[in-house]
């Protein structure tokens, strides 16, 4: 998809999953109710009502942020090798209902206890791979841990959905409503 100022915010977020975080960090857009945006608004509309920002400059900042975000992600095929070798802990950040319905064998459900365990891995250097549904929330969780000094935490690019498509087709795919 060509990234342009007339794309909707929903399309922008699909192309750059960390765009909302980048918009908030650079322009205080999308982080709270007073500065939020609708999925059907275009980037140009959001830029105009937020002080006439230059959409091309905003897109450039989103692109640069995405380049940094990608460093926090691991490809499903690489994660599968890591899991098979026993070199990482897989932590699933989805809801309990989603986890109960389908999960990657060997993964653990994220809880307060596992959060403390993950924070404790900084000293051990053990790799942790976080899993969400489609990769839209894992960057926030990964960034949280990176902000606490963990360099061995990665997010699964595309979430369990990508895992099902690229690694293990026996895991059922699903949609949320």
Automatic annotation (TrEMBL):
Coiled coil: none annotated. Keywords: Transferase. It comes from the Bacteria. GO terms for molecular function: transferase activity. Pfam families: Rhodanese. The keyword Transferase applies. Gene3D superfamilies: Rhodanese-like domain, SP0561-like. Residues 84-172 form the Rhodanese domain. The keyword Transferase applies. This is Rhodanese-related sulfurtransferase.
């Amino acid at each position: 998809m060509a990234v342009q100022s007339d794309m909707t915010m929903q399309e922008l977020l699909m192309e750059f999953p960390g765009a909302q975080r980048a918009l908030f960090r650079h322009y205080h857009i999308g982080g709270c109710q007073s500065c939020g945006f609708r999925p059907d608004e275009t980037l140009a509309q959001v830029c105009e009502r937020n002080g006439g920002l230059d959409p091309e400059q905003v897109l450039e900042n989103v692109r640069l942020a995405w380049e940094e975000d990608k460093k926090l992600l691991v490809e499903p095929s690489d994660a599968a090798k890591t899991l098979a070798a026993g070199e990482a802990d897989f932590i699933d950040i989805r809801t309990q209902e989603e986890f109960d319905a389908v999960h990657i064998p060997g993964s653990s459900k994220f809880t307060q206890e596992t959060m403390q365990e993950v924070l404790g891995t900084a000293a051990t250097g053990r790799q942790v791979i976080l899993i969400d549904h489609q990769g839209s929330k894992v960057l926030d969780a990964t960034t949280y841990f990176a902000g606490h000094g963990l360099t061995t935490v990665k997010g699964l690019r595309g979430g369990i959905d990508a895992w099902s498509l690229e690694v293990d087709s026996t895991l059922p795919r699903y949609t949320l409503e």
